[in-house]
What does this fold into?
Amino acid sequence: MQKKRHLALAVAAGLNALFGIALVAGGGWLITLGGSWYYALAGVALVITAVLLHRRNPLSLWLFAGVVLGTLLWALWESGLDWWPLAARGDVLFVLGLFMLTPWVTRPLMQRTPGAGDARTLASMRATTPLMASLLLFFVVGVTSWFFDIHSREGTLNPQRVQAAQVGPEIPPGEWHAYGRTQHGQRYSPLNKITPENVSRLEVAWHYKTGDVRGEPWEPEETTFQVTPLKIGDLLYLCTPHQSVIALNATTGEQVWRYNPQIRDQLALQHLTCRGLSYYNAELAAPAERTPAPDAFAAQEEALTRLKLPVAATDGDTTDACTSKLFMPTADGRVIALNPADGKVCSNFGNGTGQINLWANMPHARVGGYYSTSPVVVTESLIIVGGTVLDNVSTDEPAGVIRAFDVNTGALVWNWDPAKPEETSPIGATETYTPTTPNAWSIFSADEELGMVYVPMGNAPPDQWGGDRDEVAGQFSSAVVALDLESGQVRWSFQTVHHDLWDFDVPSQPSLIDLTIKGEVVPALVQPTKQGELFVLDRRSGEPVLPVTEKPYPQGAAPGDFTAPTQPVSALSFDPKPLTGASMWGATMFDQLACRIEFQKLRYEGRYTPPSMEGTLVYPGNFGVFNWGSVAVDPELQTVFATPTYLAFVAKLIPREDDTTLYVQDENRPQDSLPALNENFGAPFAVQLSAFTSALGLPCQQPPWGYIAAADLTTGEIAWMRKNGTVRDSSPIPLPFKMGVPNLGGPLMTAGRVAFLSSTLDYYIRAYDVMTGDELWKARLPAGGQATPMTYLGDDGRQYVVVAAGGHGSLGTKAGDDVIAYVLPE
It folds into this structure.
């Protein structure tokens, strides 16, 4: 027993010494970088505590109690009653303090030693009291803080409704005809059978598995099941990551037909996904009669042969009877037209091929280097298509051209080249578009009454260095651009970031909504951005409906580049507070200290700090406060339901000496595998990009990292904001701590005043009270739900909610092939 006591005392002394030395070393480094002195001072105190323990001096407990109390006061000063920051600062000391109160440690301190007398024994006994008191105080404060949520904002939306006019083509209320239900992209359903009172009774109606799960050796990390199905008549239509198109009975979930476009494999892709299909309803359309020019398909046919792309229309799988159509974009650069009734290829489209070849007239053709990841826009007479290019591979990439094709024939009607915005007539079969111009990879919206399509634009690669960008095309970089439906000419353009150096391309589909402001109905457009702004614009002119101000931001770009002096900020903004050293976080004080050191080493002067060679902290990061999932808007409540996410990233510019060396990729990477992302061949810098995380893989910034929120679109006032989601599926131990986690996907709103979201990093679909943000119901998903739910009426008259759960490769959520429908019991 005596040896055990002496061993415990030695362990306590050793731990204090070890922790103290680490804090002194790291804390000293932090001080030289201009950071907090706490860690170094605490480290010195722990080293002295270790020496006193080694000498069996009871003052060691007094000193350690002082460290605990000082840590508590310092933590409260920096973070207030916020449990997770408190825990990160005090957990190691709290556990060590409990160990130091055990008899194995305290009894050796009470033993009499020569010359000590009874006074030392009494002092030893008294020494435990302050340590017990300090630990108890820390415990009480911690427990108290658990019940405080200092990050959420309580409130209630204004319940007054307005009479919302029908926006866009009228479709049955129980159907879903486009990615955002209509081409206005509201992600709002007029169905109201599911309400806050009954939503908790939702149960699984059917569960369909597509059989398509990521795992092919050639496919990219970002192979994702992001689909929002369409509901037309009694069928549900969806696509899978590997591009199969499936029709299901909407009421039973039984498969009706399936089509496989046989995309080329071994593609050098950055993303492999399908967010959804597009639908052309011939019964609601009155298309203009257009006769294709004799050489209308010459460029398409040439590129088809040159790139060895498959032909969609094959014997036995075609029909000439297509009037209504489904359009499916593929990862090898095609758009295929299918008959919604049976899934057969429309051979009366695309000059008998059943497809459009997006590689026509495209410079720098490399299969996998350009394709459409998003559903195309369909109007009465056109389909309008954009595409994604490879981020940060080189300065010689395909064009960001936006093209309109005849909805019946597939012939090119107009092309908008950002570098030649006035020249929209179809170019010749042997001509090419301007390479490396800003592209549009996300979902478009359209207002046929106003005659405009609204295009969210990215920026020209490379993302983090813009010294050689085309000046004309640059005015459309990271902008929402309104193009004339008939001609493709620019009607107006609103730039959300001037000279974007942060990959803040406009990622979200614009939502079109009519707002009643001061008694006047204003046709508005709501444009979410990665940096957290929600720009509310008049969609007729692009003029702000809610005020937009230009504010100065940090200057000092890399050599050969420049920064814009000001950036636009909306009156409705979810821009987070700037990070400080006190914002750093970790599982323990040690990884928190490491994060503080990294924070001090990086260049960071707030939002829009330019990328640099020493490394820049980008916050909000290019993951986005908002991404492709966009937001949902309620045309009756005149509100937006948003899902802001906050993650910091690091961008470091690496000088290039030639156009062949790999500076940021593995030299031993397999040939013909993923493209050399972030190498920026042809530019003076490659770029290292990463999330700002600790050695343990945790975000260096303290939680919450994800919220749900609602705001009044007529005033810009945020009504409520609540942290959302748990770390159940992100931590080694599946604990359901509600820390507020990131999400990637979009929300759904309904007239029943219930909103749905499935895209958080934990595997749940949740329902919320739109008025207050209260969570009303949740159901466990078998995989990550990084998609946007939708809702419809079944043949049985019941309202169904459907979500795809397939996970997301780069987010690390579980892969799946699940499509699940929920319904109220009969």
